[in-house]
Amino acid sequence: MVNEWEFLWDIDPYETDSDQDGMPDGWEHNYSFPAGGCGLDPSDSSDQHGDADDDGSDNLREYKEDTDPCDDDSDDDGDPDGDDPPPLPPGEQNGTKPDTGRTDGQVTIYEIFDPPLMSLKRWYAQDALYYDSSLADPYSMYINDTNKVEIDPTGTTDYTHVFEGWLWMGVSLSTELYTPIPSVAPDADIIDYDPNATGVAVSFYKDGADNYFIRGNQDVIIDLRYRMGTNGSYFNRPVSETLTLDDLPPESIVPITGQSEVEEKVKQFLQMKNGTEPANPPLYWLWPENGSRETNMAKIVTNLTWYFSNFREGDGDVPDPEPPWDVYQSICINGIGACRHRSFGFFVTANVMGLPTRYVSNEAHAFVEVYIPEDNLTFSSSHWKRINLGGTGSSETLDRPDSDGEGDDFDFDENDPGDIDNMTGERVTVVLEGVSPSEADKGTQFRLWGYVEDRNGTRLPGFGVGGGMWDELHATPAFEIGTGSTNTTGDFDFNASGFFGAIPGENEIYAAVYQSGYLGVDGPELVEVYTDTNLTVDAPASVGKGQELVVSGSLLDIGGVAAPDETLEFEVWEGSSSQGKPAVRCNPQQWWQRYRCEIGTTVTDEFGNFIFNWTVPETGQPTADNDYHVEVLFPGSTYRYTTVETTDLRILESSVELEAWLDPQTVLINDPFWVNGTIIEAA
Q1: What sections of 93-138 are H helices per DSSP?
Q2: CATH code of the domain made up of 533-652
Q3: CA atoms of 650 and 629, how far apart (whole Å)
Q4: Fewer CB under 10 Å: which end of the chain, C or N?
Q5: CATH says 420-530 is which class?
Q6: What is the value of pTM for the model shown?
Q7: Which residue stretches of the chain have pLDDT < 70?
Q8: Using CA atoms in the order 502, 503, 508, 513, what is the torsion angle rounded to 10 degrees?
Q9: Nearest-CA neighbor of 352 among 248, 258, 434, 487?
């Protein structure tokens, strides 16, 4: 979207979505009235809920589905967009009905969430472990409480739903059987639903593992669309360092069948040694030899997450169990496997340790959720925490990993979805020893130095390190300013010059590891950023006596960052015979004296833009002449250096009344047309 339209809409030219409604400014403009559309407005966040073409699909959904918000049937198949799930599947030709999941033997799920759920939907959660060494497959996961309890749609989106959206799927509805449906969190509300079928009513249910189900008043196949919302704690619930297993309410604990036998299997894995030293110290100290098991919940969660999220994706099958190890121990010890192997190992280990854990799976992925209590008296579905251990998978067996894994990379790019709060992996220590100089101009550089070590204090060579900058008020996202790596002694020392996008003034510098599977960050170190400025001025070439002179433009720094709330000074002056700037003299008395006068000031807006108006006196100075100049001066401020721009100006004795018209008004390309008119008064 060009800056001219951003200016006319009065929106931010540095934002792709000025009103933060999920639809880019340019996309909304294309469907606005000025662009020949149906009324979208890039400055109005409420239009995300509008439905100008009345097809049952609101504007935000039309954008996400790449359909036309001004056309009620974007794929011209005879069905309104709101009844096509989804209206335009990739590769489908116009005129064909989109797949609803009823034609290919596979369940098709369509979801509208931001950020998208994709492979992290909850479909089937199991919370209990059964162990019987006499069986060929001694480990079984199951649902402890399968009783279904009906839940009513809330019908409201008022308050705590920081994460909500739609799920849409083709489903067989039954009056007798419970049909499972996916959910977004164990505590998610059903807000409302649409069966897309006349006379069909749907009832919703949950079991003891917070799996969701439906039943209906008819035996029928429907395209069910239902909206869910949650407060979001499930995705990033903190684990207090003071919580212990004694803080668990009794309702959260599911007994293990074969507890004593499976405990021995878990202890053998955790207490493995290489010679006389623990093979994995973070695991060993969860249940040391001749010691008692760890009860601190933060340590259990952190150490198990570190280990199982660092599994290697196998090139082939997970190794078959070999004596003395069983299938659980073989998976854990070899550290190879897809999402289901990681989640199974975590599930068994955590439950035996005493941490309530569920194994959660869907059609494409598996992960775990753990119970993080507030105290030992209160049990709530809102106390579960999702842990995604990475890995990929499409098979439900435990013997065939897939080839690709999910990385745990972090960088300071504000567009990076894998931000530091959601990383899994081993925590390492980053020490940012210093930043020099303490202040610098844009276009120069800062030097960052320090070291990286593990939790035992051992320096880590060959680790990538990134430098990030954040304005002191955290008004904008942090961004990367440079990268380096640790040397053979674990030290890093690199220069960072990529801070052109910084807000001038006080900023914070951080250092973080750029290493897959590891988490560590240090800072801030406070620095000051100074900058040269660029002043753009748009002024007319001429103006008549008694007319208004309008000068507009923008003030940016050399990184393109707006300079808001800065004062600009304006002068009009007449060149001397040497074209030099004369002394200030608003009313010269002699013919040889040149005109120079300060005509006012203005202040830039939040985007660095400005508009200044000055009415040329109808009589007196300045007199009509061809050799005037408009000067715009930014005198500088604390962190922005001074700059000045001058444009030429012709002052006319009187204005011209001009009338013009086109003949003809409509022509074909390459055909001529004429501009006719009259000048009623001569200048």
Answers
A1: none
A2: 2.60.40.1930
A3: 8
A4: C
A5: mainly beta
A6: 0.48
A7: 75-79, 82-119, 157-161, 313-320, 392-426, 455-456, 516-517, 577-579, 654-656, 680-683
A8: -30
A9: 258
